[in-house]
Amino acid sequence: MTGEGGTKAPRVPPRWFVRLAWAVHRGLYRAFGGRVGLWRPGRKGWGTLRLTTTGRRTGRPRSVIIAYLEDGPDLVCLAMNGWGAGEPAWWLNLRAHPDAEVRLVDGRRPVRAHAASGEERTRLWARWRAIDPNLDGFAALRPSGTAVVVLAPRPGGGAGAEPAEAGVGGGG
Fold first, then answer.
1. How far apart are CA 45 and CA 69, in angstroms?
2. Quick one: which of 5, 48, 66, 124 has the most CB atoms within 10 Å?
3. Where on the phi/psi map is residue 44: left (φ > 0), alpha (ψ -120 to 50), or beta?
4. pLDDT over threshold 90, residue 85
5. Do the Cβ atoms of 67 and 54 come closer than 8 Å?
């Protein structure tokens, strides 16, 4: 398979490897009490945050660690499911219950999620593409579009106790 301009399409690691890598990442986060596993975006890179959503079926807190970029006060994520088919559970949960909480290196923040569209999506996708030139190639491997998810600050909603960790993808 070739991508745009005749270049070879990017290779996605096997699903088991992606799941294992995130499980190890989550395990390190737990083992070190949250002191390891989260980082801020660098000048040319992305950071990681811990997102806690409300399960769309269970109503229980579900947590997952995902990559993000900062866009002013907003945090921007890609609902890519490891570049596999289907939507990640955390995005399905946010579509049902857009209010959530993120934990960053410097603390917690209540957020409200929405899918970027139009000019906003184009601009934010370009920011991700600047970090990963293979972004369009990876996205082309998915049978459906990849949502650009904006986590905007939510007024009020103070931080509560940390909910229990959930499995890969955050469940529902």
1. 8
2. 66
3. alpha
4. no
5. no
**48, amino acid identity:** T
Nearest-5° Cα angle at 47, 42 to 48: 160
Q: Tokens 């009490």 belong to which residue?
A: 33
In angstroms, the CA 125 to CA 170 distance is 24
Phi, psi of 8 (to 5 degrees): -70, 140
Query: Do 88 and 67 form a contact (C-beta atoms < 8 A)?
Result: no
- The pLDDT assigned to 164 comes to 38
pTM above 0.85, yes or no: no
* Dist CA 45 CA 48 (whole Å): 10
Give the C-alpha separation, 129 to 133, whole Å.
5
Q: What does the H/E/C string look like for the chain?
A: CECHHHCECCCCCCHHHHHHHHHHHHHHHHHCCCCCCCECCCCCCCEEEEEEEECCCCCCEEEEEEEEEEECCEEEEEECHHHCCCCCHHHHHHHHCCEEEEEECCEEEEEEEEECCHHHHHHHHHHHHHHCCCHHHHHHCCCCCCEEEEEEECCCCCCCCCCCCCCCCCCC
Instruction: Of 128, 140, 130, give the one whose Cα is nearest residue 76.
Output: 128
